[in-house]
Amino acid sequence: MAFVAGCEIPEGYYFDVERDVWVRFEPDGLVTLGMTDLAQTRAGRLVNVLFRSPGRVVRPGGAIATIESAKWVGPLPAPFTLEIVETNEAAFRKDILIANKDPYGQGWFVRVRPVGPESELAHLVTGEEAVQKYAERILSLRVSCLRCIEEVQE
Fold this sequence. Notes:
There is one protein chain. Helix content is about 20%, strand content about 30%. The protein has about 150 residues and is of the alpha+beta class. Strands 3-4-5-11-10-7 form a six-stranded antiparallel beta sheet. Strands 6-8-9 form a three-stranded antiparallel beta sheet, with no helix packed on it. Strand 1 and strand 2 (about 5-10) form a beta hairpin. The longest helix is centred in the last third of the chain and has 15 residues, at about 125-140. It is globular, with a radius of gyration of 15 Å. About 35% of the residues are buried.
C-alpha cells in the first residue's frame, strides 16, 4: 500500500488517474469500480448517489453514477465502455458515507463487464506508475486526503 499526502493507493488496483476512478479486475471476469481516496476527499461527505441501472451500457466518460456531496454534484465517469452488472446501492442506502470511509473496500460503486475494445484499457495505470502519477496530481491540486470516521456515541 502506498500513501501520498495521506491518500491511499492500493497495490494491485488499476487507476484512471484523470477521472479519479479505481479499477479492480475480478477472477470471474467482472470488474469492480469505485472513486479513489483523492476523489472522495475532494467531493467531501456524500449526501446522495444515483446509480445507473444494471444492463445499461456506458461509454468512456459517461456517468455510471451521479454523486452529490455538500460541495459538489457530478458523475462517477466510466473509464472504458462497460455494461453495468451490479450496483452497491444497498450499501449506500445503509450508510451514505461508505465511500468516504472505505473507498477501496465496502465503498465500491459498480461491478461491470467491459464491452469495448481492449485498447480502451491502455490508459489505466497500476503499481509504481500509479503512485507516481497520483503523487503529481495530488501535489498539483494541493490536497491531503482525509476519511470520514465512525462517530462514537456516548
